[in-house]
Amino acid sequence: MKRSPIKKVGKNARSESKTLHDNTPYFTVRSGGYWLTWDKWPHSIECCCEICGAFVGDVMYHRAHIDERRSEADDNIWNIIVACAGCHNHDKYPDGGLKCGTEEAKRIVRERNETHGIGGK
After folding, report:
1. What is the pLDDT of residue 28?
2. pLDDT in tens, 23-69
3. How far is it, in rounded angstroms, from Cα 9 to Cα 11?
4. What whole-number distance in Å separates Cα of residue 46 and Cα of residue 76?
């Protein structure tokens, strides 16, 4: 049986230096879903918005930067939150485009990373 990316590197891997592609399985687990594969669609299932808890299904197209993305270094597990279309809208919410604002989003991500043993900060 093929091992998932999380099982390959371990839950406590320091993934903040990895790419968005590498970190997506971590976002899936953090948002309550299950990572399946990069080889087929969907890539993940049962993911929920980390802000309001709404069902989003696959984590793809629901990854939102908390602070503005300036380079690939900003695609880390501390700067991305899984958010539904109702909670991530740059026209509606001026504070980073997130319904809860950037500071609350950072708090949510920090708590969820700690709960799931993701990262090393």
Report:
1. 96
2. 999 999 999 999 999 999 999 999 999 999 999 999 999 999 999 99
3. 7
4. 22
Beta-ladder partners of 17: none
Query: Which of 43, 17, 6 lies closest to 117, judged by CA?
Result: 6
CA atoms within 13 A on the CB side of 95: 10
Q: Is 72 within 8 Å of 19 (Cβ atoms)?
A: yes
At residue 81's C-alpha, the angle toward residues 112 and 6, to 5°, is: 60
Contact 75, 92 (CB under 8 A): no
CB 23 within 8 A of CB 80: yes
List pLDDT tens digits, range 59-111: 999 999 999 999 999 999 999 999 999 999 999 999 889 999 999 999 999 99
- Is 33 within 8 Å of 46 (Cβ atoms)? yes
The alpha carbon dihedral of 79, 93, 107, 109 has a sign of negative
